[in-house]
Inverse folding.
């Protein structure tokens, strides 16, 4: 799932992006409201996080324009703590509101709740991929109701891949996102983890249907259904 973050302060934008990527979400960061609006006109996203005070187009004005063509969930992230600002944002069509400074747990919880209400997540924050159910709150994957017994690394790899269906991830990208800083030769580690993951989730690991190999590039997942 893709989250658009519109925040002009780089340190806060980087922090929000870090929290979202740790949860397995694909993120796009822009620095002002007009850039956010232009991106939304051309690209689908699953949720937006908007700051209120931004250059070129503030968050409230951006929301009004977005609501003319989209009902994408919008979470306001702002330093303002005035009741009237909160009420105005909600009245204009925002779905939730969180005030800086914020904790990672609260932000992640609110994002999950909005995605769940929008039907992006199943009950309990579950993602479905064919017969697989990925429970993000319990960090568990089941197939036809049976626990697949994934290791932490296997779970994170699967979550990273399904966060952007059909997107091809290189072995280096997967290693950096899930394990740590990539060094030459570490691609063999990713290959081993993917092989072990397929053994646990695929009917026939030699002909996988959930995680595909893209020769010469890397791996991708099928679209979530």
């Amino acid at each position: 799932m893709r989250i658009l973050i519109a925040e002009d302060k780089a340190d806060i934008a980087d922090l929000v992006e870090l929290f979202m990527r740790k949860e397995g979400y694909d993120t796009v960061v822009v620095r002002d409201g007009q850039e956010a609006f232009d991106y939304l006109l051309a690209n689908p996203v699953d949720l937006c996080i908007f700051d209120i005070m931004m250059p070129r187009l503030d968050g409230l004005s951006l929301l009004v324009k977005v609501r003319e063509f989209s009902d994408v969930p919008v979470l306001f992230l702002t330093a303002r703590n005035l009741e009237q600002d909160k009420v105005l944002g909600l009245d204009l069509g925002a779905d939730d509101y969180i005030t800086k400074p914020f904790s990672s747990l609260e932000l992640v919880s609110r994002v999950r709740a909005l995605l769940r209400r929008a039907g992006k997540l199943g009950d309990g924050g579950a993602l479905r991929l064919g017969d697989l159910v990925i429970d993000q709150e319990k960090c568990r994957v089941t197939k036809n109701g049976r626990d697949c017994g994934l290791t932490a690394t296997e779970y994170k790899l699967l979550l990273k891949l399904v966060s952007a269906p059909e997107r091809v991830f290189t072995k280096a990208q997967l290693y950096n996102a899930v394990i740590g800083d990539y060094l030459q030769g570490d691609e063999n580690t990713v290959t081993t983890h993917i092989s072990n993951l397929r053994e646990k989730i695929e009917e026939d690991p030699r002909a996988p249907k959930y995680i595909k190999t893209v020769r010469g590039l890397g791996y991708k997942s099928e679209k979530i259904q």
User: Anything to note?
Assistant: The helical segments are 10-22, 33-42, 59-66, 83-91, 104-117, 152-162, 171-178, 187-201.
